[in-house]
Design a protein that fits this description.
The complex is a heterodimer of chains A (467) and B (181). Chain A is mainly α and 467 residues long. Chain A has helices at 2-15, 32-44, 49-75, 90-114, 124-145, 152-156, 172-203, 209-219, 226-259, 271-298, 306-336, 340-351, 355-367, 375-378, 381-408, 423-446, 452-458. Chain B is built from six helices and four strands, in the order βαβααααβαβ. Chain B has helices spanning 19-31, 48-51, 59-85, 98-124, 138-141, 161-170, and strands at residues 9-16, 38-40, 148-153, 174-180.
């Protein structure tokens, strides 16, 4: 028995006999120039008809969304389904959903960087782009939700105005302004910093004069000087170090929008870690959805490998279990805390008028990721594509459940109500999905979707053996 | 080419393809007394800055200053707007308390620190600068793609054309050439 095990271990080791303990990060052993050419040609070749059709579809959805926003602003917030017990409907659900999706991008680009997880290099660029575009969608919702966004300037930002009024720093909603604003700005700076050397690489790769000029401009004249690289690498490290606590703070602060209120179902200390885990969960699901498509359409099989998906699905499984734990712990504490209002909210959540939302959430977020215990499933593209979409459906329902079920039946049965969205809210939500996909496709076509210089730096043989 | 036009050499250049050889070469150039030479690489090569005997970057010091500025700006803003300039009683909460100032203070610390880091990184790297005296050199253009290019500029106090060329050839640089203005 023991001998057999030993033989098995040896055979296993033999599979990686070529001196590597891990699977290769990039398949096909490309040369340095091949990496440049593989990524550069995506941008260099003219856009296909399929690309324009896709842009037309997502662009139309975005236009519908903006028309619905215009309608809301022109007529008033009354065109939404928000009512007296449920003041926060789809708008805040969508806000939290979008901002959560962004979190995986920062986790991949910053946290995995600090932990020296080299497999992040192929997916970090696209994931960061996703973060930026997702935060843009998120930012729209609270702004429209104010009803009069043009007045929101002095509600949100502390600037000297003629009324001599300042914002209320005691409100979690005001903290959110700073959290989301900082998150967007820092993500953008981090993303652009990573892009500078790649713009320089492609500036010299392109033949087209227009592309050369645009890329030269954005490369800021980067030459690859070692004197610059040493500042650059330190900047990258510092930005990663800043983004790591930042990303944890953002969703913690978003969760405080709820947790600081005294409402049963919201007023719990578990919210910050629970929200952060959920954010990373949904973000990774979105990265998988987008990367499965980008890999197929752009032919990036050698750069985004099954190894990457395997790792991401493991994170999906782990964070899925964390939110599952949070769901059960919430229920347990509601019972253990012996507060009848708290108990009522949770029983109402699972069995009340919104039971379908609750159980969709449990199915998508807790049951679905369990398939990823199997390595075969973690490496099965169709399975993970469907699972990743289901996870984001589930995470949307999580936010909806938290908002709608906690609000719709408050302390006084006389003021109970029910909330359903109108077509305007649905239109705005669909519009943000269209806007997000439009931005992402333009990014995938015109910006290097793989971090070229970072991939080169992790290729076998690219670094000195001894220093 | 030489002698046809009256041009001044700007630099001496040589190419490397192997990172180990590059590291050794950089060390030898530094040991030969050149202080302003540079190596252009498509990606950061580990240990190259140390081989070139470059001092450690001072960027993190400026980042710290930026972060501290953000920290104090935030605290000052929250305290002054809420507890000095316009005292507004909201739910009987204190006009200022460090507890409710934590989130915004944290965010502004991060924001100021990140923006400072980015800006100072550009300044220290002498960017943006959309021109390089070497930009027409074919090898130099490949330095952002797949070639390591060692450059000893004519402005180096130690620079003597023949010496520099001989040094590059001796340490194994390929295609050693003079770049002219």
């Amino acid at each position: 028995m023991e001998v057999q095990e030993y033989a098995g271990a040896e055979a296993k080791q033999k599979r990686w006999d070529w001196g590597k303990l891990r699977e290769p990060l990039v398949l096909g052993e490309p040369t340095l120039h091949k990496v440049t050419a593989d990524i550069g040609q995506i941008i260099d070749r003219p856009p296909t008809v399929k690309f324009w059709i896709a842009i037309l579809i997502t662009g139309t959805l975005a236009a519908i969304g903006f028309a619905c926003i215009a309608y809301t602003v022109a007529v008033g917030i009354g065109v939404w389904g928000n009512n007296n017990p449920v003041g926060w409907g789809w708008a805040i659900t969508n806000f939290v959903w979008w901002i959560g999706i962004g979190h995986a991008g920062t986790l991949i680009s910053a946290i995995l960087y600090l932990f020296q997880q080299k497999w992040r290099t192929a997916i970090n660029r696209a994931a960061e782009a996703m973060t930026i575009f997702a935060v843009m969608q998120a930012g729209l919702f609270p702004l429209i939700h104010t009803g009069r966004p043009w007045l929101a300037v002095y509600w949100l930002f502390p600037y000297p105005n003629q009324m001599q009024m300042w914002v209320n720093f005691r409100s979690p909603l005001e903290w959110d302004v700073f959290a989301v604003g900082t998150y967007f700005t820092v993500s953008l700076v981090f993303w652009y910093t990573g892009l500078i050397p790649d713009f320089a690489t492609l500036r010299n790769f392109f033949r087209s004069k227009v592309k050369r000029s645009v890329y030269t401009f954005f490369s800021l004249g980067w030459t690859g000087s070692t004197r610059a690289w040493r500042h650059y690498e330190m900047a990258y490290l510092i930005l990663a170090g800043l983004s790591t606590p930042l990303v944890l703070s953002v969703h913690s602060i978003v969760s405080m929008d709820f947790a600081m209120a005294i409402l049963p179902g919201w007023h719990t200390t578990i919210f910050p870690p629970y929200f952060v885990a959920g954010a990373i969960f949904s973000g990774f699901a979105m990265v998988i959805t987008l990367m499965v498509i980008a890999r197929e359409v752009l032919g990036l099989h050698n750069y985004i490998t099954l190894y990457h998906f395997d790792n991401m699905n493991k994170i999906l499984l782990a964070t899925g279990m964390m939110v599952g734990y949070a769901y059960s712990m919430e229920f347990f504490i509601a019972w253990y805390g012996a507060n009848p209002y708290e108990q009522f909210v949770f029983i109402n959540r699972a069995t009340g008028p919104y039971w379908w939302a609750y159980w969709t959430m449990v199915f998508c977020n807790v049951v679905v990721p369990q398939i990823f215990w199997s390595k075969k499933m973690r490496r099965n593209i169709p399975v993970m594509f469907v699972a990743s979409i289901l996870v984001n459906v589930g995470m949307w329902f999580e936010r909806f459940t938290i908002i709608a079920t906690s609000l719709h039946r408050d302390f006084l049965p006389a003021s109970w109500g029910y909330y359903a969205p109108t077509w305007v809210e649905v239109g705005i939500y669909v519009g943000t999905i269209g806007f997000f996909l439009t931005l992402f496709m333009l990014f995938a076509k015109y910006v290097p979707i793989i971090a070229i210089s970072e991939v080169k730096a992790v290729l076998p043989g690219s670094q000195p053996k001894h220093h | 080419m030489a002698g046809m036009k009256k041009t001044a050499p700007v630099a001496v250049m040589g190419d490397f393809e192997d990172p180990d050889a590059l590291l050794k070469a950089a060390e030898k150039i530094a040991n030969a007394g050149y202080t302003t030479f540079d190596v252009y690489t498509p990606y950061p090569v580990h240990g190259l800055d140390r081989a070139m005997k470059l001092p450690k970057t001072k960027l993190s010091f400026f980042s710290l200053l930026g972060g501290l500025a953000g920290f104090f700006v935030a605290l000052l803003m929250i305290w002054w707007t809420g507890a000095v300039d316009y005292k507004l009683n909201i739910g009987g909460k204190p006009l200022f308390a460090f507890q409710f100032a934590v989130p915004v203070t944290f965010e502004l610390t991060v924001l100021f620190c990140a923006l400072t880091t980015f800006a100072v990184m550009l300044v220290l790297s002498k960017l943006p600068r959309w021109y390089s005296p070497y930009q027409h050199d074919k090898g130099f253009q490949r330095a952002v793609d797949d070639l390591f290019v060692v450059v000893i500029p004519a402005s180096d106090p130690r620079f003597i054309l023949e010496d520099a060329m001989r040094l590059l050839e001796n340490i194994g640089a390929k295609n050693v050439r003079v770049v002219e203005d």
